[in-house]
Every structure is written in C-alpha cells, then in structure tokens.
C-alpha cells in the first residue's frame, strides 16, 4: 500500500475516552503508517464529551507533530467517517449496575449500527475497521451488517491484546524473550470464553508444550493456569489497576492495524468474519490465527486441532452465537 501521495484519514471513536487518549498521540506521531505518511485525524465522541474532545484536539495541536495534517472533532459519525481509510471503533457503552447482557448488546447495537451505515455512506474504498469497544466481536458483527456495500472482511475486532498477553505469559513461564515465540493463537470471543492456544506454539523453534513439560508444566498448567490467566487478564487489570486496560489496549490496536497493512508476512491473531474455517459458522466475528501479507489478512488454515482445542473453540463459538442470536432478536441485524 502506498499512501504517500495523500494523507491517510484515521477515524477514532470514543476519542475523548481513556484508550482514545492513549492512542491518538501515537497515531499522530506516525506509529501506524511510518515516518513518510501524513495523517488526518477524525475524532468522534458523543455530544456530552464535546468539550473534552476539543481539549484533546488542542493538545494534539500543541505537539506540532510534523506528520499531522489536521485534526477534526465530530459528534456525527457520517461526518467523522467521510473519506476514512482506517477506523478505530473504540467508543462503546460500558456495562453499568443492573444492566443485563441483552441491555448491553442493545445499547451497543444502537452505537454500532449507525456507525456501520455511516461508514457505508462515506468511507474510502480501502477502509479497514477494528472494533475495540466491548463486546467487540458482536459490535463488529453489527457494524459489518449495517456497512452494506463494504466487503465484510474489512470489519475486524481486537484480540491482539489477548494474543500479546499470551505471548507475555509464555515468555515468562519459559524464561525466554517474546521474540523467540511463534504460533501462539487466540480463538473465539474476546471474553473469558476465549481459547488462547499453545498447541502449535514454538519457543526458539521447539514445541512450547515440550519446553513447558521440561519445566514441570504439563497440560494441567496450560488448562488451569495459562488459559484462565490470559482469558481473565482484563478483569485482573481492572481489579489491580482500578480501571480497565488502556495503554496495552491502545498498543494492541495499533499493532492490529499496522500488521493488517503489512506487505511482509506477519502471523498473529485477529477476530474476523468467519469464512467457515474450522467449522465456525460463516459470518460470526471470531478470533483465529491469521497471516497478514500484502495489505490483506487470511485465516491460517489446515491446522489439525486436537480434541481439547476443538472443545474450547466450540464453547467460545457457542457464546458468539448466543450474542448473535440476542442481537438478532433485538432487531439489530435487520
Ligand atoms: P472510556 O469510558 O474511557 O471511553 C469511552 C468513550 O467512548 C467515552 O469518551 C464515551 O463518551 C465514548 N462514546 C460512547 N458512546 C459513543 C458513541 N456512540 N460514539 C462515539 N463515542 C462514544 O473507555 P475506554 O477505557 O477508552 O474503553 C473503551 C472500550 O474499549 C470499552 O468498551 C472497553 O471495554 C473496551 N476495551 C476493549 C479491549 C479489547 O481488547 N478489545 C481492551 C480494553 C478495553
Ligand atoms: C480487556 O480485555 O482488558 C477488556 O476487554 C476488559 C474490559 O472489560 O474492558
């Protein structure tokens, strides 16, 4: 991809929020597209956050970033998404006391359906979308459904943070650097049901499960310690830090988008509309191991999953189906 001729327009929703604040300065500094590409930032938040959003735009101006062509603030997604090449959909309705899961899906459907339509109205042909706002997979499903005319595969959700968490835990358990690790994968939903898999992972070229076994960490360590630690890390951060992941989420979102645009092959995990791979119902936005190359991603196919992996994937996909069925019954996929 060569964006050098004109600035790349990046939209960030929830731009007055915490992850917004952690991601915008990095985008403006050129961390997504490199040192030769001018960036135009379109910041979207709700009207109540307009003043805070203005303050963020003022701070971005005060950095005098050489690559920052312009910053514009919006409360209307149609205007914010006009001509957009990359969209980080971060803003979402948090769960509040007394809110049932269906209420949360309904409140978020009301955000992501109009945003999908607004993207269909005016986004650029090479649009790429990553949904960060939770429940991220199902919010991406809703946005993709309403983004009529945009190829579905352009709508993805973030499980790169889970992938990075899995890398960090494995590196720690095997006392190696994360750079020595390959083949870790996140399967399923960005939720506690996700399946962080070490089945095909290697550490310095040796199967990770063998390296772990040599350190006295067998299947029960994987099942009882590694998987829950990765899958429940978001809740652990909330408990320990007193707020949900912000810096690590912003970092993961940049890596997700940057690798998607990479010319060179990169193996990672992304939640993407299923093609039917591994028996996952077509269209569900599910995390898979993917290979990014030439500005596209493809699901890494042909892995022979063992029974344990199949069962874990199935359980997380059941949760995705239940979320999909709830939004269907709420009329959000009409
Ligand atoms: P935050 O509450 O600090 O900010 C959210 C922002 O979104 C607020 O400024 C709010 O006004 C805005 N917003 C709400 N509705 C909007 C709408 N319709 N349009 C535009 N903006 C809107 O939250 P945060 O810490 O920045 O987190 C944002 C989301 O990211 C949450 O849903 C959180 O659960 C999720 N998250 C996902 C991951 C992941 O790995 N997928 C990791 C961390 C957090
Ligand atoms: C995370 O994985 O850190 C977040 O999705 C947690 C949350 O509920 O915001």
UniProtKB/TrEMBL annotation:
Q: Which residues bind substrate?
A: 95, 101, 134, 165
Q: Which residue ranges traverse the bilayer?
A: none
EC number(s) on record? Answer: 1.1.1.37
Give the residues annotated as active site: 190 (proton acceptor)
Gene Ontology biological-process entries: malate metabolic process; tricarboxylic acid cycle
Q: What class of enzyme is it?
A: oxidoreductase
Q: Where is the Lactate/malate dehydrogenase C-terminal domain?
A: 159-328
What would be one Pfam family of this protein? Answer: Ldh_1_C
Which residue intervals define the domain Lactate/malate dehydrogenase N-terminal in the entry? 9-152
Reactions that this protein is recorded to catalyse: (S)-malate + NAD(+) = oxaloacetate + NADH + H(+)
Give the protein's biological function.
Catalyzes the reversible oxidation of malate to oxaloacetate.
HAMAP family for this protein = Malate_dehydrog_2 (MF_01517)
Per its record, how is this protein called by name? Answer: Malate dehydrogenase
* Organism annotation: Rothia aerolata
* Higher taxonomy: Bacteria, Bacillati, Actinomycetota, Actinomycetes, Micrococcales
Q: Which gene encodes it?
A: mdh
């Amino acid at each position: 991809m060569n964006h050098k001729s004109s600035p790349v327009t990046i939209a960030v929703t929830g731009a007055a929020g915490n992850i917004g604040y952690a991601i915008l300065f990095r985008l403006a500094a050129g961390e997504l597209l490199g040192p030769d590409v001018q960036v135009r930032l379109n910041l979207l938040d709700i009207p109540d956050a307009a003043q805070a959003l203005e303050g963020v735009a003022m701070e971005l101006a005060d950095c005098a970033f050489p690559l920052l062509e312009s910053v514009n603030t919006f409360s209307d997604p149609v205007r914010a998404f006009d001509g957009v090449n990359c969209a980080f959909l971060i803003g979402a309705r948090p769960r509040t006391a007394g809110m049932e899961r269906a209420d949360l899906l309904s409140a978020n459907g009301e955000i992501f359906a109009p945003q999908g339509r607004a993207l269909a109205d005016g986004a650029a042909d090479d649009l790429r979308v990553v949904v960060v706002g939770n429940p991220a997979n199902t919010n991406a499903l809703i946005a993709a459904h309403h983004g009529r005319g945009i190829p579905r595969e352009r709508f993805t959700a973030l499980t790169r943070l889970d992938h990075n968490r899995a890398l960090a835990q494995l590196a720690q358990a095997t006392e190696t650097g994360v750079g020595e690790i390959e083949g870790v994968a996140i399967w399923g939903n960005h939720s506690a049901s996700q399946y962080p898999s070490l089945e095909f992972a290697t550490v310095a070229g040796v199967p990770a499960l063998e390296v772990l076994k040599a350190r006295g960490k067998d299947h029960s360590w994987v099942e009882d310690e590694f998987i829950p630690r990765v899958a429940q890390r978001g809740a652990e951060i909330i408990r320990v830090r007193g707020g949900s992941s912000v810096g690590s989420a912003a970092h993961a979102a940049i890596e997700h988008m940057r690798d998607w645009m990479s010319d060179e092959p990169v193996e990672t995990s992304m939640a993407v509309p299923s093609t039917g791979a591994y028996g996952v119902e077509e269209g569900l936005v599910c995390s898979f191991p993917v290979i990014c190359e030439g500005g596209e991603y493809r699901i890494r196919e042909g892995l022979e999953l063992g029974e344990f992996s199949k069962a874990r994937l199935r359980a997380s996909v059941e949760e995705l189906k239940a979320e999909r069925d709830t939004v269907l019954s709420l009329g959000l996929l009409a």
